[in-house]
Amino acid sequence: xxxDDLASVxxxxxxxxxxxGVAVSGGGDSLALLIALAExxxxxxxxxxxxxxxxxxxxxxxxxxAGICARLGVGHDTLTWRGWRxxxxxxxxxxxxxxxxxxxxxxxxxxxxxxLGHTRDDQAETVLMRLARGAGVDGLSAMAPVRRANxxxxxxxxxxxxxxxxxxxxxxxxxxxxxxxxxxxxxxARIRARQVLAGLAPLGLDAxxxxxxxxxxxxxxxxxxxxxxxxxxxIAQEDRGDVILSCPGLQQAPAEIARRLLVAAIRWVASxxxxxxxxxxxxxxxxxxxxxxxxxxxxxxxxxxNRLRIAREPAAVADISALPGLPWDGRWWVQGPAEGxxxxxxxxxxxxxxxxxxxxxxLPRASLIASPGVWRGETLVAxxxxxxxxGWTARTGTGFADSLVxx
Length: 407
Description:
This is tRNA(Ile)-lysidine synthase. By secondary structure, the chain is an alpha+beta fold. 43% of the residues lie in helices and 19% in strands. It folds into three domains: 3-212, HUPs (Rossmann fold); 239-314, Uridine Diphospho-n-acetylenolpyruvylglucosamine Reductase, domain 3 (2-Layer Sandwich); 317-401, no CATH class.
């Protein structure tokens, strides 16, 4: 791709004059995105760099980005993360922390969208890794050009642009970049996929071919989402934070559509970024054939005659707290006559005992225990879903039907 075409790519991928954040690590891809956006102009632009605290060079790299931003006249902020405990998947933990930090940063500055520097090569590597895991349509559709998460629109305008094209763009401007040493570390699956992809290119299985597959899978995914949404309109019901699915309806639906509805309900109720593992979901559905309830992925799934109720698992929210005006458990917005010393916490057993009319609410006991309560110290102020309103209301930010498409 001629480097002059990047302006038209950005016009399509980051349209309009609305304020835009751009995540910049100092690597070639994100640095090219920063410079191309600054050259294009026409919008309020602010850059952000996350220092994960995993390498001593990270602070210097953040300063390197800050210097380039100063030269370009672009505001810049550095965010720090010190949450790595040395256990689990390092890359995934860092990724989740990075998205969370950047989302908080953007919302605090009134920025509703953030651009990321993922390229066609990243897309191809993602498809290859997911092929190795036996992924289906959703997994093989890989990264979307626009994704809504954490209250932010994440834009990936360079998914049709190669890594080599961006390096050529930087060379033309005599701009250097930072090579992360982890890009050569074969302990990481992505680096191994990058090496394998280079070896597959002579067979025609290159970045362009895999990215084209991702595009076709994304189109198939949209079709399945529409079908799932149509089916949900007939067999699903949202009940004050719970989702109820008709068992006969699930049995009559194609297996893939039934699976999508179950996964979407679990993700929505749990505010989960990922779906439960396929084997765990299958095991839970088998258990429900002989038991009245099962827990999965932070949810309590209960068999009620000819329907399933997916509710939040009380134990999963027992230690979650938030201030009024901020989302509780990722999806509840609680508003009311705040005096300034209230905290949002799960209603719990103690809170439910302070709600004498909770049975009139018509929700199961377990659902109410896991619902949001307004507390002042250890005193319950309000429980909007349990019949103790006291001027307070609780609503979910996004309805289940909307989540079927956004997920």
